[in-house]
UniProtKB/TrEMBL annotation:
Helix-turn-helix domain location: 6-53
Protein name: Helix-turn-helix domain-containing protein
Source domain of life: Bacteria
Pfam families linked to this entry: HTH_17
Length: 62
């Protein structure tokens, strides 16, 4: 079973970018994420939709 979310480190590895660059894009909102406490989580479906250039969020997610 695949995880529902990725961490910023996961996304950095998937994109082949530095961890700091991934955090920069998550904080700016360029990469879709949610913040829980001090932690950022990237919903897997929203990340892959973003990566594929889809403009609307799947299942009406914000």
């Amino acid at each position: 079973m695949e995880p529902l979310t990725y961490t910023v480190d996961d996304v950095a590895a998937l994109l082949g970018v530095a961890r700091g660059k991934a955090y920069e894009h998550v904080r700016s909102g360029a990469i879709p994420s949610i913040r829980i406490g001090k932690r950022y989580l990237i919903p897997r479906e929203r990340f892959h939709a973003w990566l594929n250039g889809e403009t609307s969020s799947p299942r009406g997610a914000a």
